[in-house]
Amino acid sequence: MALGTTSYVILGMLRKGAKSGYEIKAKADISTRFFWAISYGQIYPELKRLEEAGLIAGEADPDSGRQRRAYTLTAAGDEALHEWLTREGALHFELRHEGVLRFFFADALDESEQLELLATLRDEHQRLRRELERIQPAAEERSAESGDRFPLLTLETGIAYQNFFIDLCDRLERRLTERQPVTGGI
Amino acid sequence: MALGTTSYVILGMLRKGAKSGYEIKAKADISTRFFWAISYGQIYPELKRLEEAGLIAGEADPDSGRQRRAYTLTAAGDEALHEWLTREGALHFELRHEGVLRFFFADALDESEQLELLATLRDEHQRLRRELERIQPAAEERSAESGDRFPLLTLETGIAYQNFFIDLCDRLERRLTERQPVTGGI
DNA sequence: GCTCACATGTAATCCGTTACATGATTCT
DNA sequence: AGAATCATGTAACGGATTACATGTGAGC
User: Fold this and answer.
1) Rounded distance, CA A73 to CA A50, Å?
2) What is the C-alpha separation between A127 and A25, in angstroms, rounded?
3) CA nearest B21: which of B52, B56, B54, B53?
4) Does residue B141 sit in helix, strand or coil?
5) CA-based nearest residue to A105, from B105, B31, B66
6) In whole angstroms, what is the distance from residue B127 CA to residue B134 CA?
7) Regarding predicted confidence, which is higher, A89 or B62?
8) Best residue in B10, B13, B36, B105 to probe A by mutation, most A CBs within 10 Å?
9) Cα torsion for A46, A157, B179, B182, to the nearest 10°?
10) What's the pLDDT score for residue A180?
11) Which of A149, B111, B112, B119 is most buried when burial is the number of CB atoms within 10 A of its CB?
12) Roughly how many angstroms between the first and final C-alpha of chain B, as a whole number?
């Protein structure tokens, strides 16, 4: 069976202790969604597929009073996850950034509109940074409990990433207002 | 008619002097594709839609000996483009980064595999940086001819963006090898 | 004559989101 | 009793890629 990157998000989340589709979604929504979003419409059908392929095992979970299906990684599933984590070759990288796209076409704007666009862009990334910072305390707790360090490192990376854009907007704003030549480092 | 962000890429490219669907694709492939990719499968049907909506006007182009259809922005199209460039509200932002995703799950790897993953990640962004640097001379020429400064600023931004990731990999590598605690700035 | 770039188009497919339907349990 | 959360699932839709089909003109 062909696995997409989204399949590995599911395997990875199960390895991190998620049991149900619902839990996978909840975990992804406060972590991987910033660099690989997933939705219920993918999760539930994919859980079935992964079970058929023998990479995960599911059973009705009587522990929780609720009607939920609890999944665990099989040995084959753990192996598949590890194979992906160490696989060689190109990594999927894709960015859709409407702000940068507008910036690219900003010669069609007058200077005040250009500055407004930069402000909008900065606002957007400040909003994202706040969102990540809100997640941080809970992530630190989970890290202390589990001993895992990479989720926290990834979160710090995400904040640094937002700071990159915010600083960039500041620098570009100065560039535009000071009417410096186009050449020279940003 | 509802316009998606991709429609505005087409309008924007026409404003920048592209005439045919082919030219739009060629221009996008050395510029906007890094933050908003488009394909022929979108371009040609969308050109028809935009013409029906009166935002662009097309005619068989006899100038070029070839069978090509040359489009130009109408006043309405120019207005629509400007409206989008100055529109308020959230900007579409989406990232799919398999490298960061693997990094997030990297607690499942031993230390040498973790370092290999970081090396792969850095390679990928170095490759992207080289790709952007290859484009730069031609972009500088076009900037000098047209007087537009934003495409070049965007390209410089893209190179800075790749550098951000490359530097990040270096810092994370040091963090892992020096076995420093998880806390503390990246 | 051959190859490459120019040029247009579409059908199949894939991937993913959104919206909706449904219902149980826990908390207040 | 009512609201919020837990929980599963799917159908419709949208957006985009891939692969293919087709043909012309320019340069070697």
Assistant:
1) 10
2) 22
3) B56
4) helix
5) B31
6) 11
7) A89
8) B105
9) -90
10) 57
11) A149
12) 46
A48 Cβ contact partners less than 8 Å away, ≥ 6 residues apart: none
User: Looking at chain A from residue 82 to 141, which residues have their Cβ under 8 Å from any Cβ of chain B?
Assistant: 82, 84-86, 88, 90-109, 113, 116-117, 120-121, 124, 128
The DSSP secondary structure of A23-52, one letter per residue, reads: HHHHHHHTTGGGTS---HHHHHHHHHHHHH
Residues in chain A: 186
Q: Which residue has the tokens 């068989």?
A: B60
**Token pair of A145, please?**
């409990």
Q: How far: B64 CA to D28 C1' (Å)?
A: 21
Residue A179 and residue B144: Cα distance in Å, rounded? 16
Per-run averaged pLDDT (10 residues), chain B, 186 residues: 96 97 98 98 98 96 80 98 97 98 98 98 98 96 95 98 98 87 56
The H or E element containing residue B101 is: helix B98-104
Alpha helices by DSSP H, chain A: 5-15, 21-29, 40-52, 75-85, 98-104, 111-146, 150-177
Give the CA-to-C1' distance from B94 to D6 in angstroms: 28
Closest to B113 (Cα-Cα) out of A149, A84, A80 = A84
Indicate the residue type of B41.
G
Render pLDDT for A29-65 as a digit per residue (tens, 0 to 9). Answer: 999 999 999 999 999 999 999 999 999 999 987 666 6
Enumerate residues 6+ apart whose C-beta is below 8 A from B62.
Answer: none
